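re: ur question from earlier - yeah i can do the single chain one, its not a big deal. heres the input i used so u can compare w yours
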Amino acid sequence: MLDLVDLLKNNEQSTTQEEKLTSVLFHQSEECKELVEEAFRFEGIVTPAILQNSDDTIRKHVRESTIEIVLVELNMSSDVTADMKRISHLLPNHASVIVIGSEDAISTIRNLKEMGFYYLFWPVSKQELIDFVRNVNDNRTRNSGLGQNRTAKRIAIWGAKGGVGATFLACEIAFELSAKKNSSCLLIDHNYSGGNLDIFLGLSQFEKRPVTPGSMSSSLDLSYATSMTKKVNNMLSVLAIDSDELIEAELKEYSRTLSKELAVQNNFILEDLSSSANSRGDLKYLATACDVLVLTLEPTVSSLRDAARVISDLDKHRATVRCIVVLNYTMPEKSATVSTEEIEKYLRQAIDIVCPFEPKLGAMVLEGKHLYQQNYPISQSLNRLTSLLLGQNAPKSKKNIFQRLARKR
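and the output i got, formated as C-alpha cells:
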C-alpha cells in the first residue's frame, strides 16, 4: 500500500536545499500533476506527495500531522461544491486546503470559502500557482486565512423521552464516522449523574475525568482539553467529566468550553443528549451552535409529544440547525402505540430514518459488537443516518420496506 509518510520523507531527502513546505496533491489529470511538480521544482520548494484523487486514497493517506497544505484537483468535477462537501470530513483541520478547479462561478468561491477552503481557478500559470501557495502558507504562519476557520461540525443526538436510544445512536454514529469514514470525532457525554455511554463504547473500568471549581478558572488550552479526553480508537475520543462540587449546568458549560478548544483537531463533535441529560436551555444553545440535530423518538404518545415540543421550541429560537428525525423502534413494531403516518402528521415533518426493532441489540452491545458493521435491517438504517449527516445521498436499501411495515401495523 502506498504510504504518504514515505512519499513525504523521500521528497525531503532528495532536496535538502529546497524550501520546506510539506504538501500533498490529489490530482485528476496528468496536466495538473506535471504543472504542480514543475512549478514547485522551479521555485526550489519541496514537491508535493503526488496521489490519485479518489475518496479511498484521501481517506488512507491525508491524515499525517506533518501535512501543511493539501491541493485537491477537481478539474473533471461536474459540481465542485458537492464534491468538496463529500470529502470535507476526510480532510484534517490542521491543513490548509487549496481546491483547483475549472468551474468559473462566484457561488463556487463563496461556497468553498464558507467551508474553509481556498479556490484556485484553472488554467493557471506556474507563477500564479506558486504565488497562491506561498500566500496560503503565509496565512498559516500568521495564524490567519481560511485554513484557520475550519472547526468540527457539531452534531447533537437528542432523545425525546428517556430510553429511546439516543446514546446508542450517538455511539454507533461515532464509530462509523471514525472507523469507517476515517473522520476524527469527539463524543461528549452530557449525562453527569451516570449513564451507559461506556457500555456502548465498549470501555471497561471507565472513569469520568474529575473537575473542581478551581480548574474552571485556570487557563484552558488545547493541551489541557486533550488531557481531559479518553481515546476510544485512533480517530475517536470521548469527553466525560464529573464533579462532587459542581452542579450539572456548570459541568455542561465546562464540557462545551473544552469542546471549543478540541474543535480545531476534530472533524465532528457529537453531543449525547439523552432525555436524562437534556433541557430546554440546551435547545436554545443547540438551535444556533450546532450544525445538525438528530431528534430521536420511539413510536409512543409520550415520546411523540416530547418530539413535537422540541420542534416547536426550535422554531421559537429561529434555529439554523438542520434537524434529522429518527424513529427508533425500541420495542417490537406490533407494540407501537402510534403509526409513522400519525407521527408525521403530528410533527408536520417527515421521518428521515426508521430504525426497526432488533431483539439481539442488547446482547451484541455487551459482546462489544457494533450494529453499523452488521447485516441487520437496523444496520442499514444506521448507515443511511451517517450518510445523511455527511450530506451524501443515502443508499435506498430497505428503508421504505420498514416504513411500509410500520404503517400497516
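Confidence is low (pLDDT under 50) at residues 12-17, 397-409. not sure if urs matches, ping me
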